[in-house]
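Reopening this one. Same input as before:
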Amino acid sequence: MFDLSTGGGYLLTVTLSVGIGATLLLWQYAQREVSWHVFITTWLGVVLSMILIILIPYDFTIALAIEEQHSPESNFASVGWETIYWVSFGLCWIACPVLIDYESSGGFTVGKRIASSLRRNGGWFFF
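Same output, byte for byte:
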């Protein structure tokens, strides 16, 4: 039926494929003037979104295999879900808003741009 020992190879292959696909997609359609940290943040968001599409059927299959074999539940899938959740949370609520204001800031130095971005987002973060 389904061998639990081959799951890691499947996930590694899918993750690499999604990462390469997201890189090619963003390389084709991203503006060339975009800074590297914005490109990496966008890449991470695209990869996490695509991984969710792959992880849901995989998790469902693992749950059925564990139920069928009456084996103890694997902690691998729950760690993966928690990691994706917290990284997505950090991207959506912290990294992306700060980067958006950082890129639109009128400061001439990195420090002034970060300070301006944090000042604008401070109301959202603390209240």
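So the earlier flakiness isn't reproducible anymore. For the record, The mean pLDDT is 82.
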